[in-house]
Amino acid sequence: MADFGTFCLLLALVASSWAIIASYNGWRVQSGELVLSGERAVYAAWALVLLGVLALEYCIHTDRFDLEYVASYSNRALPRMYKVAALWAGQSGSILFWLFILLSYSAIVVLLNRRKNRPLMPIVVTTLSVVSTFFLVLVNFMTRPFVRLSFTPVDGNGMNPQLQNPFMAIHPPCLYTGYVGLTIPFAFAVAALVTGQLGDTWFRTTRRFTILSWFVLGTGILLGGWWAYVELGWGGYWAWDPVENASLIPWLTATAFLHSVMIEERKKMLRVWNLSLVIMTFLLSILGTFITRSGVISSVHSFTKSEIGPVFAGFLGFCVVVAVGLLLYRLPDLKSEARLDSFVSRESTFLFNNLLLVGAAFAILWGTLFPILSEAVRGVKITVGAPFFNQVTVPIAFGLITLAGICPVIAWRRASARKLLEKIQIPFWALVGSAAALLIAGVRDPYAIVAFSLSVFVISTTVMEFYWGTRARQKVAGQAPAAAFLSLVDRNKRRYGGFTVHLGFMLIVVGVTGSMVFKQEATASLKRGQGFALGRYTMRFDAIVRQDDPNREFMGGRLAIFEGTRQVGTLTPGQNFYKAGQNPSTEVDIRSTLRDDLYLILTGFDPQEGVYTFKAYLNPLVNWIWIGGAVLIAGAWFAMLPDLRDRKRDVEARLREIEAHAA
Amino acid sequence: MPRPLSVKIAIAVAFLVAGFVVLFGVGLKGSLVYYLTVGEFLERSGHEDLGENYRINGNVVPGSIQKDPRVPGARFLMTDGARQLAVVYGKETPDTFVDGSEVVVEGSPRPDGIFMASTLLAKCPSKYEAQNRKGDSYKKPAGQGGPPASPGPVPTPR
Q1: Is B101 within a domain?
Q2: Which of A355, A452, A460 shows the shortest CA–CA distance to A399?
Q3: Which residue among A45, A168, A628, B142 is least crowded, i.e. fewest CB within 10 A of its CB?
Q4: Which residues of B touch A576 (CB under 8 A)?
Q5: CB contact under 8 A, B151 and A78
Q6: Cα separation, B127 vs B137, whole angstroms
């Protein structure tokens, strides 16, 4: 099976290389047959890599420990679900998985565009195949998943217990699907630049791919935070670790693109900017992979220092040169067809939103790469700590939030100041009111006051936007409020989906602010019967809990949780001791409510004296981060659904194409 | 010609960029930390003052971890293979913090030379590949007999 897998991957490399040659030459000599052959080669490469993935999964499931990869990441006792996940637990497997996702996207793109966008497709296929060929070279020659050991171990090392968590099992696929999906808009952008078809086709075609990748990447980031929160036992969810940053940076530039592309759609402005954003996003996602895989930056997540670093750097350099070269070559053709009409307009809020997002991305990139830069320049590694990231991103986030509040009420082209003030009146007083209420309630932290009252501002302008829209529809169509609301959002899925995303984002802001600013903690060493207090909770240590399972032993303490004098539940934080000899793992226990999370950790115990030490965190509002994430996902899905307008546009485009052919 | 508008926008953008620069400067000022190995740190700390905070990378000396079950944290020695540094850490340690694991500590040295760490990172699970490569030291299955037949239970996620 292992040889079969190796063979499939080698054939896939041949197929993918052929896809480059056939598509590119097919485009040059305008040969439909060659182009078709290139597209078929993409399907072939996809099928072959699928077989390779299945072969590796088969080896994992049949415990083929003579393979280094299987021996390193699986063992006999590993549950089925995690054996599937073992595919992306290590470096070579995860690169193979990455490649598989890329080829799946490529095959879908080829399939969806078999009758559309024909002039662009050869170059799209060429670009996608160049990227997959790069990854195929990696899996064939550098990070080979089917390497054999010189002996066959009796059992594998198994997956680290911390990774045996459902969130962790789906976090990497989410991140990869997001990261890799950003290659699609890049490929269309390159095709537009190469062919000179610089109209709106490239971004219209890839809009759904961009939104899909954007929100899947966002989901992946959130799931990673959630996993860290429930599994790592330090009470937090984000640490500005280089690998976390590497996923956030392309997400920020993709966010910028999703906004600014609307301007290009409406006004044919910012064309160079949009192409640059798409190119930048793709390069940053490759850079992110490079950071994660190469070990150039010290990170808690980093894989072993490996030889693929220079190869990645070379590929990245190649992409930069080609993309920037193409952009410069087409620069004269990319003049804006319009200008900003007014400083006070929705266009300009989008412009500033973009500058802030790209500024934030650049700041985080700078902080992440600082150790490399300082070592190159001064010979000493200097790292940038979390305070830098917080100090830079928090003000930028405030700017973005303010824009998100103003944006829905400000008109396109030229907004009259009077009308704007009129519309913003109620949200503005909501902002002032909530700030005053917070001050009266005793909140003194300026960050918290600004963040909360701005959130109220954004939520109220957004909700009012739904309200005004519904009112208008009621009048125009004479519908009942509920029906008017439904037909309003149904007719403008993108707009109201987008606003829903904003609402979700604001909930995340509320959750992050609450848990960052108002976090409380307490530590206590207790004998049975003793208790300690934190915030509104009192905890009493009632019993020692031991559980013996075939592969681990759980040791923990059961605590009764009181709110005032009323018992509201029990929590059992503890530690798992694995019999296979892996490190013990901390098992936190959390009482989660909408108001706050009580987060308990068993940090140590002295069995002789019966003294157990517990650490408790009270994380206010942290649940709203996950709720906001769910709202955000729902909004993004909704925005992707087909609109009446889209269908009309598609039909029109098809008609134009037919006319062009006929002429 | 809408000249004044483009000037306005240019001014606004200039303000924004200036704001970024200020943010960068202020942000960097308090958060730059030298990232050194144990040996580099010991060499430098004797001679020149590099600031107050350091980030040091090394491995935990096996057997050196001392923990008091009543107090979170640990005392331990870390090494770069040649020299050793005594470290005290006062918060609960991550699960990956065990004998031999690669750690990064951040903090400052006390006058007596003991390093007071305020943060401690130990390498995360994905790192295991490196350790395996070194000696091909695959663990024997638990117990002396054959491999356990049934898959173990799923660790309790909450």
Answers
A1: yes
A2: A355
A3: B142
A4: 155
A5: yes
A6: 15
